[in-house]
Amino acid sequence: MGLIDNINKLFDHRIRLGMMSILIVNDQVDFTRLKELLDVTDGNLASHTKTLEKANYIRIEKSFIGKKPNTKYSITKEGKLAFQKHIEALENLIRQQT
């Protein structure tokens, strides 16, 4: 088994890595807050959320508050497990290099 076998390619991008880091410690985060925390555009955030949703790593919940649309994101059990494995793989890689 290679040193980087358990590193998940879906988390290679800094925005997806940031999203997962935020969602693993929060039950839910809405679109606006996630966009502010990551300092990204609407389109950029939307494309990365689609990638993570397609992998079943995050759940997207759309609703309305009054007449205003509201989108909330949360991490799935599968996403939490995949992200934890990714972090462990990075930690193992660092430990092996010291």
TrEMBL record:
The organism is Maribacter chungangensis
Name the lineage. Bacteria, Pseudomonadati, Bacteroidota, Flavobacteriia, Flavobacteriales
Name of this chain's protein = Winged helix-turn-helix domain-containing protein
Q: Which residues form the Winged helix DNA-binding domain?
A: 15-94
Record field: transmembrane = none
Listed InterPro entries? WH-like_DNA-bd_sf, WH_DNA-bd_dom, WH_DNA-bd_sf
